[in-house]
Amino acid sequence: MSSSTSKTKWIYEVFINFRGEDTRSNFVSHLYATLSNAGINTFLDDENLEKGKELGPELLRAIQGSQIIIVVFSKNYVQSSWCLDELEQIMECHKSTGQVVMPVFYGVTPSFIREYASQTFGEAIVSKTNHFVLHNSDPRKNPRNKAQGDDHYSRDRLKISEKKDSLEQALGDASILAGWDMDNYR
């Protein structure tokens, strides 16, 4: 374990990252109950978010403040911009602070995640990166002005490309970590 993780005061012992519609009412609810019953301080988005707080900053704080992160990959995981944002932050924390990331493959295989990160998931990644550019573009630029519009478009395309690369890297990096393929445990 790196020295940075041994000195960190963690808020949570475990953070569970998952796609709600796929796993919340089955696998994740059982995992959360088991961890909680064992006395493990676990973050689950609907259990620990303070009412009235913005979802993004509160999740970011929980991710950064968790010693172990369990990523539950499922069929619709990468269709969620929230999941992709969280995963990107999770992998950044894993690299910078040495947080432990434990992937669980629920109804999908590790190779499925790797093979489709730039194919099937490509649509979700492009959608997510387009959303990123829309919300991070300079509002002072007027796209109707051709010179400014072309420059603005070029910067947007670069941002999209960088965001797409970042998301693909996070998916790829997470999918090659040692984890559990739940199809082997049924």
TrEMBL record:
BP term (GO), one: signal transduction
A Pfam cross-reference name: TIR
Keyword NAD set for record: yes
InterPro entries linked: TIR_dom, Toll_tir_struct_dom_sf
Extent of Basic and acidic residues compositional bias: 137-154
Stretch list, region Disordered: 135-154
Keyword Cell cycle in record: no
Record keywords: NAD
Gene3D superfamilies per record: Toll/interleukin-1 receptor homology (TIR) domain
Residue ranges of every copy of the TIR domain listed in the record: 10-171
Cellular component aspect of the GO annotation: nucleus
Name by which UniProt lists this protein: Disease resistance protein (TIR-NBS-LRR class)
Domain of life: Eukaryota
